[in-house]
């Protein structure tokens, strides 16, 4: 739509960071504050740790009905519910949570934290250090183990000794399996979706290309850009990273069937216009720079690159042998980023795991987010085997 004088409206530039900021509406968030500095796997300490989290349902008197949902790289704690103040996007697994759904909130108490190092209310690069300045580029490197230590503190604060179910896909699956290896006594059942026990060379390579794109942006400033003002964050680099990532999240057949080599409506690629698939990637890049933080993307991608469940534990098989939770492992048949062989290794290595389940989807890696009916069936299968929690009134 044009303005009153017939000229196209000027797009409002995005803020330097899409991170949630102090003073923004809290939305459904609650916060857990760790009393002591968090010891990191690297040997350092991270002071003033807090995690933003959201909950649905009510915790049973015996605390037996708690479910932990762990998000992927650019997800957050807003698993279910509409977009609104404090939540720029609707819930990313909204179809799974609520009365009568797979995670039935009349029975289950669902907890979803924003990962440590994230940007939607948890401590991360956009957060203030003890001296009041932003962490920015000096934020320490994290691993999945560090993130799980922080989440275990949240569980302690909520009085949850044992999760009825821990589930996650992609990066969330990395943390879910780390939970089950680090704290086998605290995980009754486990659902791992489109994930792996150790990052592969190809996964590291794709992530490294994305990290280079962000750091090459002249507005990156070593990670210290958060107060630079609208339009002056590393949006170009983050946008390129998102484009690269999104290509790996889908599959070639889907992209070709949806877009082929067709031009975007009203545009001619021979005259500087775009192809439809270019417009599609531009759209996803533009959305991400308004709701995410480039430095958080770097911290989380580096943590994913470092993921190795067997590090210091005698290797992958030895680590997976520690899992005692009833486990289902599922992969997406069209996933080229986390191929089925990685899930087969998880299922074969976990003594309590059932056979590998395959999610049929044309959407590639994103199938674990989009095929909610198939994911919901797996959730129900696991929770049906869990002792019925004490009845909870949700009146």
| Envelope shape | globular
Question: Whole-Å distance between the termini?
Answer: 46 Å
What's the CATH topology label of the domain at 30-199 and 308-384?
Rossmann fold
Specify the number of helices: 11
- The amount of helix comes to 25-40%
Strands in their spatial order, largest beta sheet: 1-4-6-5-7-8-9-10
Q: Measured on Cα atoms, how large is the radius of gyration? A: 21 Å
Which CATH architecture of the domain at 30-199 and 308-384 is right? 3-Layer(aba) Sandwich
As residue ranges, the low-confidence spans are 389-395
- What's the CATH class of the domain at 30-199 and 308-384, please? Alpha Beta
What is the CATH H-level superfamily of the domain at 30-199 and 308-384?
Answer: Alpha/Beta hydrolase fold, catalytic domain
- Oligomeric state of the chains present here: single chain
User: Which series of helices and strands comes N to C?
Assistant: EEEEEEHEHEHHHHHHEHEHH
Mean pLDDT: 95
Beta-strand content bin:
5-15%
- What kind of sheet is the major sheet? 8 strands, mixed
E-strand count: 10
Structural class: alpha/beta
Provide an overview of this structure.
The protein is α/β, with parallel strands linked by helices. The chain is 32% helix and 11% strand. The longest helix is centred in the middle third of the chain and has 16 residues, at 201-216. It has a domain at 30-199 and 308-384: 3-Layer(aba) Sandwich (Rossmann fold). It has helices at 144-158, 171-182, 201-216, 235-249, 252-258, 276-291, 294-305, 316-320, 340-349, 367-370, 372-384, and strands at residues 30-33, 38-39, 45-46, 50-56, 66-70, 109-113, 165-169, 189-193, 326-332, 357-359. The relative contact order is 0.16. Strand 7, helix 2 and strand 8 form a beta-alpha-beta unit. Helix 1 (144-158) packs across helix 2 (171-182) and helix 3 runs antiparallel to helix 7 (294-305). An eight-stranded mixed beta sheet has the order 1-4-6-5-7-8-9-10, with helices on both faces. Strands 2-3 form a two-stranded antiparallel ribbon. The termini are far apart.
